[in-house]
From TrEMBL:
<protein>
    <recommendedName>
        <fullName>Sel1 repeat-containing protein</fullName>
    </recommendedName>
</protein>
<dbReference type="InterPro" id="IPR011990">
    <property type="entry name" value="TPR-like_helical_dom_sf"/>
</dbReference>
<dbReference type="InterPro" id="IPR006597">
    <property type="entry name" value="Sel1-like"/>
</dbReference>
<feature type="signal peptide">
    <location>
        <begin position="1"/>
        <end position="16"/>
    </location>
</feature>
<keyword id="KW-0732">Signal</keyword>
Length: 179
């Protein structure tokens, strides 16, 4: 039981609280619509995060920040272009995380050992947008080691799972060029 507790504590991201928050601006406005009704509109606009902020949040496992850092690395947006690292981030953000940690406990008194499931939190699905970006890197030849076949495989799996942009892109590719 002590081993399981040590593993659980080490799996908790400590850096999550030390990353700086994004700068936000809040706006409110009273708007009169065509019928004469007055409505209160509240908006929060998050400014562009610095690359260091995005890198910090991506390191904590924030999948959206992994995709953003991958996009910046892929295109060289405010950071040196690194297609290999961008693909790694897209792959990590697209991979589902199971909320179960399997821990081996040795047997006691001649009994065999066993593997026990320890719930560490809810299961988290991967981000389809990350897989889509990774597929396009391969299809369009922007990956460090581009593979059209790998890109098409990822795109086909995404389109079959119901991701609309992937379905549209896959259908367009399969239809062939238009003249």
């Amino acid at each position: 039981m002590v081993a399981a507790a040590l593993i659980l504590f080490s799996a908790t991201p400590a850096a999550a609280k030390s990353c700086p928050p994004a700068e936000v601006e809040r706006f409110s406005a009273l708007i009169r619509d065509a019928d004469g009704n007055v409505r209160l509109i509240l908006a929060t606009i998050r400014g562009r995060m610095t690359t260091d902020q995005v890198r910090c949040w991506a390191a904590t496992g924030d999948r959206k920040m992994m995709v953003e850092l991958g996009r910046r690395l892929e295109h060289g947006d405010g950071i040196a272009r690194d297609a290999e690292r961008a693909e790694e981030l897209y792959k990590a953000a697209a991979t589902p995380k199971l909320g179960t940690l399997w821990v081996y406990t040795p047997g006691v008194g001649g009994q065999p050992g066993r593997v026990m499931p320890i719930r560490t939190g809810p299961d988290e699905p991967g981000l389809p947008a990350a897989a889509f970006a990774r597929a396009l890197m391969h299809i369009e030849g922007r990956a460090a080691r581009p593979s059209y076949a790998k890109g098409m495989k990822i795109l086909k799996e995404l389109s079959e799972s119901g991701h609309a942009p992937a379905r549209a892109r896959y259908d367009a590719i399969m239809a062939g060029p238009t003249t």
